[in-house]
Amino acid sequence: MALLEIITYPHPVLREEAKEITVFDDELKKLVQDMSETMYDAPGVGLAANQVGVAQQVALVDRSEIPDEKKFLVLVNPVISDGEGSIVDEEGCLSVLECQAKVKRFQKIHVTAKDIDGNPLEFDAEDRFARIIQHEVDHLRGTLFIDRLSSLKRTLYKKKLRKILHQQA
Fold first, then answer.
1. In sequence order, what are the beta bridge partners of 47?
2. Where are the beta strands (DSSP E) in the chain?
């Protein structure tokens, strides 16, 4: 297992539409293991493959119920349907430096995907679990949570990011 570099905005891979996965092999399993190690090291509760520079439709979502438990769900080629209700809550992102904001999401969703072996998955998700899945599936579509903010908040964030990047240079 290896820690992968988490790509940060404005890197173009974060805007790519991830490609559908058709081969379920050891290479995919290694990617998922490396992503899980990276996600928990960050620490994060979800990670999409394009966040580590791989534009393929695979995302990890933390399912831990107790502190320090490392239990996650792998979603390959996920599709969200039947969104119900809405809820506004705070979000952040490992790929969006120093930004937390309130984002409106569906409260309940229906998910179809494949697991790491290519077997079909189908389930409903609610609340925090649904929020994380929506956030990660957005990544696979080339959408960041800041795209769901008002244009004013996005503009303010971009100014802040320029300062951050200038200080790092």
1. 60
2. 46-48, 58-62, 72-84, 87-93, 96-105, 108-114, 120-126
Query: Does the active-site annotation cover 126?
Result: no
Instruction: Report the SS3 class of residue 155.
Output: helix
Distance CA 142, CA 90 (A): 20
Degrees, nearest 5: CA angle 164-94-126: 140
Catalytic residue among 69, 98, 126, 136: 136
pLDDT > 90 fraction of the chain, expressed in percent and rounded: 88
Q: Which residues contact 79 (CB under 8 A, 6 or more apart)?
A: 111, 112, 113, 137
The pTM score is 0.94
Q: Residue count of the chain, please give it.
A: 169
DSSP secondary structure code for residue 21 in this structure = P
pLDDT value at residue 20:
98
Confidence of residue 96 (pLDDT cuts 50, 70, 90): very high
